[in-house]
Amino acid sequence: MAGFSLPFRKRRILPGFPLALGVTLVYLGIIVLLPLTALVLKALDIGWDQFLAILTSPRTLSAFRVTFLCALAATCFNAIYGLALAWVLARYEFPGKRVLDALVDVPFALPTAVAGLALAALFAKNGWFGAPLDHLGITVIFTPLGIAAAMAFTSLPFVVRQVQPVLEDIGPEVEEAAFSLGASDFRIFRAVIFPAIFPAFLAGCSLAFSRAIGEFGAIIFIAGNQPNYSEIAALLTFIRLEEYDYPAAAVIATALLLSALLLLTVTNMLQSWHLRYVGRGD
């Protein structure tokens, strides 16, 4: 029996890998892939001519334009504010830090309808923010600006929670080393910090954008929902369902789905390219 040895089996905390993998794949197939496949098949069932006619109708195009422009504005705001907030939480110690850290997750936990009602009350013409803004000639409620505000509120945590742990892992000693070599603050951020957080920053922004284009509950209370002005694509899908126009609802929903998938695919490709670029730099 010399030389005979049992094959080494790596110990797992949770045994039963085949069972766990099978349950995971079944769940993914039934809960995620099957409904999405049914949606796409329903949209394609009407034929390409009608599909394109629904997708290119003036009201649908207007709804997509409002949705994507407001989502872009909200994502740009969250990219700047979310990065600054993640930096403050990762780099500084101050009274109330734990409370501020917990408040970041409020949009995750808060029902979107409650968020919409709160924002509508806040930005109403007699609200805390709406009244002074109205004196300045700025109207938020029932305008695309209100839609962007609701999108920014609900998607902010994606940027903060993606960037904050990466900043905490970098550590301030890296900045101190660069500073000791004579680099300016801006150059340290541009050449040292930002390349390190770029994949997480990009992922956070893409997730925030995807969440914004699919947001519904927080927007309908503040948007006014006027066709060709403040009507978003998700609301138009809901309106088509109420009209029992299921093919039109499926077409609009499929377009939103494909937009989100395309964005996530491009984001993953950019992240992979960045990691290879950084690897060659190392």
TrEMBL record:
Pfam families: BPD_transp_1. PROSITE patterns: ABC_TM1. It is a multi-pass membrane protein. This is Sulfate transport system permease protein CysT. GO terms for molecular function: ABC-type sulfate transporter activity. The chain crosses the membrane at residues 20-44, 64-90, 102-124, 136-160, 188-209, 246-266. Belongs to the binding-protein-dependent transport system permease family. CysTW subfamily. The complex is composed of two ATP-binding proteins (CysA), two transmembrane proteins (CysT and CysW) and a solute-binding protein (CysP). Its main location: membrane. It is found in: Cell membrane.
